[in-house]
Amino acid sequence: MIKIAKPEVNEYHEFYAGYIGHVGETDVVQLIVEQKTDFIQFIHAIPDDRYNYAYAAGKWTIKQLVRHIIDAERMFGFRAMSIARGEKAKLPGFDDHLYVEMVDDSKNSIQDLLGEFESLRESHIEMISNFTSQATERIGNANGSDISVRAIIFIIAGHVAHHKQIITERYLEHV
């Protein structure tokens, strides 16, 4: 599998620094592979009665948070693929809150959502594994800011790590 160097700070908007920081010096591709199983196991370990729990008014439930992770990963993957292929057009941003509001996951179980996450993550592992080192260094524009493919790959991993930490600290503190 390809080894991807940590992006320089000029390769992404400062908003993403926290996500990239969650990866640290870890092999990001290996982390992405491990997260596919680890995140699913983490969510499965949560008591069923917590999936529809929000820690405060106006906050997402755990199910909604999993949906958000899926939606964001799908957008990040699209950006990575587009920029890796040399796309010059400015790629749009997305309103993550609107995306969560506009989906009705009431008929979906947590298993349905995790199955979607697993499939999406597997496709991203395949995509990333086929990038050349030159492709990971390409820079494009997404959401109004320049960003490299390798920064997006770090964001994919860091985003899941960030939300896993949020779930642990804010949703499971009294469980």
From TrEMBL:
InterPro entries: DinB-like, DinB/YfiT-like. Signal peptide: none annotated. Coiled coil: none annotated. Residues 35-167 form the DinB-like domain. Pfam families: DinB_2 (PF12867). This is DinB superfamily protein. It comes from Reichenbachiella faecimaris.
